[in-house]
Specification:
383 residues, globular, 15 helices, 3-stranded antiparallel sheet, alpha/beta, 15 strands, 20% strand
C-alpha cells in the first residue's frame, strides 16, 4: 500500500529555526486547496497502487485549516485512491489552534492521530523560538485532544539550544510521559541557512549551538525514555510498544507515497519528485493542468544507498539478506566489508542478519551510513 502526504503551506508566524516552505498569509487559502484537489486528479496514476493505508497532513501548520477543509481534501483523495482501509490519518497541529470547538470538529472528520508541536514546556524557550503558543496552551491542548477521545498522539520536542539546561530537558521529557503520550519525536536544533535563527546568531543576539550539549541531551533522552519502556525505533522517534508512526515508518522502509502541495515530495519506488516551493507558481501551474515538479530517476546505486541511510536509522537495522536478495552478493560484500571498522569500534553490532547502531553509533548515524554507501564500480571489486 501507499501513503499520501498533504503539505499545507500556511503558518500564523515564522518560528526562528524553521526553513520549511510556508506563508504567513492565508489570502489564497481557497485557491491553494482547490489546486491541491486538482493535483490529486493529475497525480492519480503516480503510485504503483491505488490502495492507501496512511495519510499525513504536514506543513506549515495544517491545524490552521477548518475541519471542513480537511474533509474536502480527504473526499477528493477518496475519488482517486482506495482509502477505505486507511489505518492512520495524521494531522500536525500547533497547541494554539486546538481549542475545544475545533478539536470536536476534527473529531467528526476521519482524522485519527495528532502530531502536536510542543517543542518546550517553558515560556522563555518558546519565546526564544518565536513559537505562537505558550507552555500552558501546550499542556491544555494535549489534555483537550485526549478528552475528545484521541489516544493516538505524538508530541515534538527540541533540544540542544542554549536556554535548555539538562534539568529543563528532563522535565520536558517527563512531562510528556506523565501526560501518557504514546509517541515522542525529539530533534536537535540545527541552524539552517537563511532562517531568522541563523541571522540572530550571526549578529550576536543569540548564542551559537553547542554540539556537546546536543549530544549529551540526546543520550539523556535515550536513557530517560528507555526507563519508561519507550522503544527508540528511529533516531528521532520513540514509542511505546507497537505505537510507531505508521506513515513515517513507511518512509524509512521505502514504501511509495504521493506528496500533494507546494514543496511536497513523492516517491514511487523508482523515481523521486518534488514540487516547486512557491505558492503562486504552484497554483498557476496546476490550473494549467501541469504538476510543477522536478523528477529524479534513481539508479540502482541510489536505491541501495537510500536503503542504507534509512534502515540504519531504525531499530530494525540494515537487513543483509534483503540487501543481497534485491541487489546481489557484490553489494552485500561491499557493505559488510565497510561496516567492519564500525563493528570493531562498537558503533555497529550484528543482530542475526541485520546491522544495527549502538547507542554511541547513533550519535554519528549519518556519517556511518555515508561510509557504507556503495560507489560506482562496486560490482567489479574483489571483496
Amino acid at each position: 500500500m501507499g501513503g499520501i502526504y498533504f503539505h499545507i503551506p500556511f503558518c500564523k508566524q515564522a518560528c526562528h529555526y524553521c526553513d520549511f516552505h510556508f506563508s504567513t498569509s492565508i489570502k489564497y487559502k481557497n485557491e491553494m486547496l482547490e489546486a491541491m484537489a486538482k493535483e490529486l486528479r493529475l497525480q492519480s496514476s503516480y503510485l504503483p497502487t491505488d490502495r492507501i493505508n496512511t495519510i499525513y497532513f504536514g506543513g506549515g501548520t495544517p491545524s490552521i485549516l477548518e475541519a471542513s477543509e480537511i474533509s474536502f481534501l480527504l473526499d477528493e483523495a477518496s475519488r482517486h485512491y482506495d482509502i477505505s482501509n486507511t489505518v492512520e490519518i495524521t494531522l500536525e497541529a500547533n497547541p494554539d489552534d486546538l481549542g475545544k470547538t475545533k478539536i470536536e470538529a476534527f473529531r467528526r472528520t476521519s482524522i485519527n492521530r495528532f502530531s502536536i508541536g510542543i517543542q518546550s514546556f517553558y515560556d522563555e524557550d518558546l519565546k526564544w523560538m518565536n513559537r505562537a503558543h505558550t507552555a500552558q496552551e501546550a499542556d491544555s491542548a494535549i489534555k483537550r485532544v485526549q478528552d475528545a477521545g484521541f489516544d493516538d498522539i505524538t508530541a515534538d520536542l527540541i533540544y540542544g539550544y542554549p536556554l535548555l539546561t539538562d534539568e529543563k530537558w528532563l522535565n520536558n521529557i517527563q512531562k510528556l510521559v506523565q501526560l501518557h503520550i504514546p509517541h515522542i519525536s525529539a530533534y536537535s536544533l540545527t541552524i539552517e541557512p537563511k532562517t531568522a535563527l541563523a541571522h540572530l546568531i550571526k549578529v550576536g543576539k543569540y548564542k551559537k549551538m553547542d554540539d556537546e550539549q546536543a549530544a549529551a541531551q540526546f543520550l539523556q533522552l535515550i536513557e530517560t525514555l528507555a526507563g519508561y519502556a519507550y522503544e527508540h525505533y528511529e533516531i528521532s522517534n520513540f514509542a511505546l510498544p507497537s505505537r510507531y508512526a505508521k506513515h513515517n515508518t513507511n518512509y524509512w522502509k521505502s514504501k511509495p507515497y504521493l506528496g500533494i502541495g507546494p514543496s511536497a515530495h513523492s516517491f514511487n519506488g523508482l523515481q523521486r519528485q518534488w514540487n516547486i516551493n512557491n505558492n503562486q507558481q504552484y497554483i498557476t501551474s496546476i490550473n494549467h493542468q501541469r504538476v510543477p515538479a522536478e523528477v529524479e530517476t534513481l539508479s540502482e546505486i541510489d536505491r541501495i544507498n537510500e536503503y542504507i541511510m534509512t534502515s540504519l536509522r531504525t531499530m530494525w537495522g540494515l537487513d543483509l539478506e534483503y540487501l543481497e536478495r534485491l541487489y546481489g552478493s557484490a553489494a552485500l560484500g561491499y557493505v559488510v566489508s565497510n561496516a567492519k571498522q564500525f563493528e570493531e569500534d562498537k558503533k555497529i553490532y550484528r543482530d542475526r542478519d541485520c546491522l544495527k547502531l549502538t547507542v554511541s553509533g547513533k550519535l554519528m548515524a549519518d556519517y556511518i551510513a555515508s561510509e557504507l554507501f556503495i560507489e560506482e564500480g562496486y560490482e567489479h571489486e574483489k571483496i
